Amino acid sequence: MITQKKTISIITPTYNHERFVAQCIESVLGQDYTNWEMIIIDDGSTDNTPNIIKRYTTDKRIKYVRQEHRGIDYLCDSYNKALSLSEGEYIAICEGDDWWPPYKLTIQLEDLEKNRDAVMSYGYTYVVSIDGELEDFIPQKGIPLSARENNPVGKAALYMMTPWYFTFAFPVSVVIRKTALEEIGGFQRLPYIPIVDYPTFLQLTLKGRFVFNEKVLGFWRRHPESTTKKKIYLILKGVYEYMQIFLKENRNKLNVEDKELERIFRKWDDFKAIQHFLAGAYCLNKNRWDKAIRSFREGLSLSKGFTEKSALLVGIVFAHLHLRIDPLLRLFGYGSVNKILDKAMIIDKDSIDKELAGEKT
Predict the structure, then answer these.
(1) Using CA atoms, how far apart are residues 271 and 245, in angstroms rounded to an integer?
(2) Last residue of a domain, one of 181, 212, 242
(3) Is there a contact between 17 and 41 (Cβ–Cβ < 8 Å)?
(4) How many folded domains does the chain comprise?
(5) Would residue 277 count as lying in a domain?
């Protein structure tokens, strides 16, 4: 039975969340576990967000900090400002447009109190639309329990460094031991793009085990124009760059064998080959046959997988015959190239369009 002695500090960055911030705060107020403080960092909201938050500040557990607008590029600074103000032994995250189930804090405090060598507890996150409709869940299937629990320490990193499993947990689902966060220098960020969770969680893989709980522990709202929706290719670029730096600095701590390193980089090569295939297929739809052939050939130079190589070779044949590849994709149940790209967003269509326009003039 968990007592109410331990304080949990909740970090809530927000900006123009007037539609959602009340639900966020209400979900914290509705927690079974009541010994918490909520530190709301408002990045200069211009809508009604401040007035909505102020209605709740009669509860002394809710601390409201308003700052001049700095933008998404400084999200990591907002996280670390809240961390510096926190008084709890544990850190939880509930951004202003997300929310929690009422049992979350009780369950995760139990997880961390029972497992004193664990530095983070997390569980399933439901990914919802802007209107709250279920779209997906994280983490994905296919990750072994040893990796989910980071046991032995560092095991999770070997999966987080691949393109398919880098999203282990969403911030809304985690509770982190504050001392572990302080040991890594607070919250981290990716190069190129203001993503805080990936580098922070990757660094935490070196500090102790994780506890994975099979309950839904958070609801994360996906906005149609969000960075994570529209620019996944930039996130992946940042992940790849950060992963290499992390490996260079920590290979001895990870005790990773050459064979495992080859597996990680082979997955990245195959992923990049898929990016080249999709870029080539996109060029086919634009009737830019030569550019499509170049993209497919670049992919072939990277790919080690039979499936990827076969797709790229088919792409080259279609380009030489001046055929679009959509009918073939539909035959195998994938839909059109544009439909795939709208869902995955793993290539930069804008850059390709600019390049094509430059070649045409």
Answers:
(1) 19
(2) 242
(3) no
(4) 2
(5) yes
Closest-CA residue to 278 (of 224, 358, 343, 188): 343
Among 192, 196, 190, smallest CA distance to 169 is for 196
In angstroms, how far is CA 317 from the centroid of its own chain? Answer: 36
pLDDT one digit per residue (tens) for the chain, 361 residues: 566 789 999 999 999 999 999 999 999 999 999 999 999 999 999 999 999 999 999 999 999 999 999 998 899 999 999 999 999 999 999 999 999 999 999 999 999 999 999 999 999 999 998 888 888 888 777 889 999 999 999 999 999 999 888 878 999 999 999 999 999 999 998 877 788 999 999 999 999 999 999 999 999 998 876 655 556 788 888 899 999 999 999 998 998 889 999 999 999 999 999 999 999 999 998 999 999 999 999 999 998 888 889 989 999 999 999 998 888 777 767 777 777 776 666 777 878 888 888 766 4
Q: Are residues 306 and 183 in the same domain?
A: no
